[in-house]
Specification:
The protein is of the alpha+beta class and 256 residues long. It has two domains: 66 residues; 166 residues, Beta Barrel (Porin). The chain contains four helices and twelve strands; from the N terminus they run H-H-E-E-E-H-E-E-E-E-E-E-E-E-E-H. It has a twelve-stranded antiparallel beta barrel with strand order 1-2-3-4-5-6-7-8-9-10-11-12. A hairpin with a 4-residue loop joins strand 4 and strand 5. 24% of the residues are buried.
Length: 256
């Protein structure tokens, strides 16, 4: 998959949601017509129109993104998450958090999603969802499992593919730890107005998550507000796995 295909799929999802909203409204209004006491149709319809307009705007926005994306290469090279310095993140529509990681050339390099997605999660309010234990899988572009991430309220544990705990992260204290060597991590939010998170191992910066800045050459494929995950050249495997925990903690209840 490339970023252009992602934009097209997302636009179709928004369009289908818009159509479904109007179908549901039509069914409700049809039932109301047969009631002895008819409710005011305008009051019934207004919330559905607001939702439909929001979904249609999403369809237009992502369709335009797909038209603006331009590709000059057709790469099938395997891109390793543990060695490459920069990744761009896209939140995909799903009942739970689902993040796609793209290389700056526009091609998919990894996917972060629930191991077993549950349909009823679409309807669960975030307040109740917070108390549901979740397990996410991190997969490369070929669908190979690279790591598991267990989320239980404020505690996030990252496991290797064999199920061994590697690093932990607390979303309340924003402190993490590597379990083997007891190395401490801290995620520092530099602004409450926009996304700019620095992750430090001890006092050494190892990764950064930010939004609103992008090199000009990447702008041909990605929207300027696409989140960018960057790694220090000396970042270790554990540093990168810890960054996944920070990402989940930050985006878990974002719009997706």
């Amino acid at each position: 998959m490339c970023i252009q295909q992602y934009y097209l799929q997302t636009s179709k999802t928004y369009l289908n949601a818009c159509i479904l909203t109007f179908l549901l409204l039509s069914a409700i209004l049809t039932v109301c017509m047969f009631l002895a006491i008819r409710p005011p149709f305008a009051l019934v319809a207004i919330p559905f129109f607001i939702v439909a307009i929001s979904q249609f705007n999403g369809y237009i926005r992502f369709r335009n993104h797909s038209k603006e994306a331009h590709f000059k290469i057709n790469s099938t090279e395997k891109i390793d998450f543990f060695t490459n310095p920069n990744f761009l993140l896209a939140l995909a529509p799903a009942p739970a958090l689902k993040i796609l990681l793209f290389h700056p050339n526009g091609f998919l390099t990894g996917e972060l999603k629930e191991v077993e997605g549950k349909f009823w999660r679409w309807f669960l309010p975030s307040f109740f969802d917070f108390y549901v234990k979740k397990r996410f899988g991190f997969y490369n572009q070929e669908g190979e499992l690279l790591a598991l991430i267990d989320v239980k309220q404020k505690e996030i544990a990252v496991l290797d593919r064999k199920g061994n705990n590697v690093v932990t992260f607390n979303t309340h204290s924003q402190i993490g730890e590597s379990l083997r060597d007891r190395v401490q991590y801290r995620a520092e939010h530099l602004s409450s107005m926009y996304t700019d998170i620095h992750i430090h191992r001890q006092k050494h910066p190892v990764s950064r998550l930010r939004k609103g800045w992008m090199p000009l050459e990447w702008g041909t494929n990605f929207h300027v507000n696409t989140p960018i995950l960057s790694f220090d050249p000396q970042a270790t495997k554990n540093d990168r796995l810890l960054a996944l925990a920070v990402i989940i903690g930050y985006f878990q209840y974002d719009n997706h």
